[in-house]
Amino acid sequence: MSVLLNKPKTMVDIYRLLPEGTPIEVIRNRFYMSPSPNLQHFEVLDKIVDALKQEVKKQKSGKVMYAPVDVFLGDNNAVQPDVFFISKENEKLINADGVYGAPDIVVEVLSPKNKNDDLVKKKAEYEKFGVKEYFIVEPSDKSVITYYLQDEKYIEQRRTSNRLVSKVLKKSLAF
User: Does the pLDDT value for residue 2 go beyond 80?
Assistant: First the structure.
């Protein structure tokens, strides 16, 4: 019989007790299921990861990571962005069990069953914790909603298609 020596205080504490690979994220101290994405989601994500990795490698500017890597934002959020970038200046956020703090860039590819999580809940937390650029991609038409952090608030940019326009990387990345 196992006994918990320290009673969990937050949902993130409980999250840490779950078996590895459990498809759950914690947003504002609440659990949200993350069902497996469809094939179209994966194909678009794969192209974005390739484009980002290629540019970051060329610039030697940091690390590109993708789900399932835990990103802990404060004590009440444990999310797994589809893909994200950590600049060299922020690599200290990377630990063996995840990333503790805001990535510089986050890209989420929408899934039909949990669009609201990316469009509303996660967007609010990324803004609050200082993610500099947030890209939301609709896989069906590859349209991109871009948010840049300005004065601690997200400012929506002109929508694009098949392209991430990054101020952080000073590059437009086609996918």
Answer: no
